[in-house]
Amino acid sequence: MKTKKHFGQHFLHDQKVIEKILALLDVQQSDRIVEIGPGPATLTKPLHQMNTHLTVIEIDGDMVDFLESSCFNPPIDIIHGDFLKLDLSPILHCQTKVISNLPYNTSVPITARMLHFSAFIPTMVLMYQKEVAQRIQASVHTRDYGPISVMTRFFYRVSAHYDVGPGAFQPPPKVWSRVLKLERLERPLIEPALIPHAQRLLNALFGKRRKMVRGTLKKYGQQNWQTIYNEIGNPTARPENLSPDFYARWVTQTEVTKHV
């Protein structure tokens, strides 16, 4: 089946990897599942056999034609569209697990968009380019720690499970992939309504990641900056030195008063 480079398509075909991914999702018959970018249905077909309520979202019209011609019985919900532009409220309106071999070129924005719907997504099993996965799972005080690391941990526990070599895909990519499992926290660290504020703050800070945080504190939440600064405890702290819990308190306690 022909792939399209502009969609970042690398179709998974390794059966052992497919079985591992499905096992991580821990599928129950009562589950509602959304698959993003099903492509030639290598994950879709075994998911369908588990008698779940399955919805797939596919941007490629040729793949949609293939899925529709596959005659799933009972039928699955096939949505032709761009996940980043679709109205997701009719799709993610009740508890739904998400699974995807994410396209490399849009994996971070897709992940960021799902955070808005975390109240309806208890579990995600997602495959990323390895370097991107390292950013998402990165811990405080590490080089890879950045905005997407913090944003994801506001809502989910992130665990890495295994790396997948290029030979598991067709065509083989030039890089390795990694499978992550995201499990929702019992209580989010911030409310989803604060995501835009958090994104602006984190992008501003990590855009100047070698600078000490205290300078940015004076520009964000001016009324409270001294209190927050005192909580840091380290006068030379840089963005990678602050935990998701700290950022959550900062975001919750302050309002954006000036763009950096």
Structure overview:
It is a single chain. The longest helix is centred in the last third of the chain and has 12 residues, at 195-206. The protein folds into 2 domains: 5-184, Vaccinia Virus protein VP39 (Rossmann fold), CATH 3.40.50; 194-253, Helicase, Ruva Protein, domain 3. The protein contains 10 helices and 9 strands. The chain has helices at residues 15-25, 44-49, 61-69, 107-115, 130-137, 147-153, 195-206, 213-217, 225-232, 244-253, and strands spanning 11-12, 32-36, 53-58, 77-80, 97-101, 123-129, 156-164, 169-170, 177-184. β2 (32-36), α2 and β3 form a beta-alpha-beta unit. Helices cover 33% and strands 18% of the residues. By secondary structure, it is α/β, with parallel strands linked by helices. The protein has a 7-stranded mixed β-sheet with strand order 4-3-2-5-6-9-7. Strands 1-8 form a two-stranded antiparallel ribbon. Mean pLDDT is 88; it is low at 256-260. The radius of gyration is 20 Å and the shape is elongated.
Strand percentage lies at 15-25%
Q: Give me the number of helical elements.
A: 10
Output the radius of gyration: 20 Å
Listing every helix as H and every strand as E from the N terminus to the C terminus, the arrangement reads EHEHEHEEHEHHEEEHHHH
Strand order of the largest sheet: 4-3-2-5-6-9-7
Beta strand count: 9
- How many independent structural domains? 2
CATH 4th-level superfamily of the largest domain = Vaccinia Virus protein VP39
CATH class of the largest domain: Alpha Beta
CATH topology of the largest domain: Rossmann fold
* Biggest beta sheet attributes: 7 strands, mixed
**Fraction of residues in H or I helices:** 25-40%
- What's the mean pLDDT score? 88
Shape: elongated
* Level-2 CATH architecture of the largest domain: 3-Layer(aba) Sandwich
Structural class: alpha/beta
Give the N-terminus to C-terminus distance in angstroms.
47 Å
Low-confidence runs: 256-260
Q: Please identify the oligomeric state.
A: single chain
